[in-house]
Amino acid sequence: MSKTLLSLGHGFSARALAALLVPQGWRVIGTTRSEDKAQDIAGTGVEPLIWPGCDLTPFLQEADALLISAGPGSEGDPVLAECRAQIEAAATGFEWVGYLSTTGVYGDHKGAWVDETAPLTPATKRGQARVEAEAAWAAIPGLPLHIFRLAGIYGPGRGPFAKVRNGTARRIIKKDQVFSRIHVKDIAAVLLASMQQPRPGAVYNVCDNDPAPPQDVLSYAAELLGVPLPPAIRFEEADMTPMARSFYAESKKVRNDLILKELGVTLAYPDYRAGLQAMLAQEKGT
Q1: pTM of the predicted structure, to 2 decimals
Q2: Which of 14, 160, 257, 285 has the most beta carbons within 10 angstroms of its beta carbon?
């Protein structure tokens, strides 16, 4: 008997999970806000649903699993703002619920290691909004919630190659700055592993094995492409948008032991080098 996943905010990571579930016979329903995106989703074997704009109640009642990818806005979590009562009514009917959060909830740790037990001290408004959204979802009685704190996401169509090729990439140098990353295919593998062995209340960091300075990633991308290194610019002198600059407000190395040991996930791309190599090979069709 096939099972149903309702994916709220069916974006980059959710699509990667659907690509694993649909061939297994899952029915996947994915929400989006536009007709164009709905048509795009339909081409992947996922049933599109334009929302907000329809009543989610019947879909919540039919779903065995629920994935929430929609991020919080100025008014808080958009899903709970629209239909908290319906979700509360359906809560105990789900076998698994996943909420995609961010490692930004940990804030700045000056390059030190953090795991899932680290205090939540976000350094940005976005990070604080995520902390509040996590708490709001966790407060729903009977909901079998699993929180996934994602590091910087990359994958096909989302990576450094385009900027390196067109000459707009810059290596922003800030002393002791490190970021953790994760390939979208590995996000999907972690979510699937959790669905297969639910542990309601679990929190997982989702990142690869190799936190690294952002300039190292750009340098390696240029090396793979055989082009000159992007120019190096000191952080203090860089002309950046407030959003881009805010990412540099936090430096930490995120531990992923739990997804490896508890969920038994073997990362397809354990570091950015493996991930970039695979992306370039896919571009070339090799």
Answers
A1: 0.96
A2: 14
Per the DSSP assignment, residues forming a β-bridge with 97 are 66, 145
Q: Is residue 170 part of a domain?
A: no
DSSP label at residue 228: P
Residue 284 located in a structural domain: no
* Concatenated DSSP letters of 21-81: HGGGT-EEEEEES-HHHHHHHHTTT-EEEE-SSS--HHHHHH-SEEEE-PPPBTTB-HHHH
Residue-wise burial string across 140-156, b where 16 or more C-beta atoms lie within 10 A, e elsewhere: eeebbbbbbbbbbbbbe
Task: Report pLDDT digits (tens) over 107-131.
Answer: 999 999 999 999 999 988 999 999 9
Q: What is the DSSP string of 156-200?
A: TTBSSHHHHHHT---EEE-TT--B-EEEHHHHHHHHHHHHHS--T
Does 190 map to a domain? yes
Question: Which residue is associated with the tokens 């490190």?
Answer: 178
Show the domain range for 202.
Answer: 4-154+182-207+253-268
Of the candidates 150, 214, 215, 212, the one whose C-alpha atom is nearest the C-alpha of residue 184 is 150
Q: Residue 199: inside a domain, yes or no?
A: yes
Q: How far apart are the first and last CA of the chain?
A: 37
23-82 per-position pLDDT tens digit: 999 999 999 998 889 999 999 999 999 998 889 999 999 999 999 999 998 889 999 999
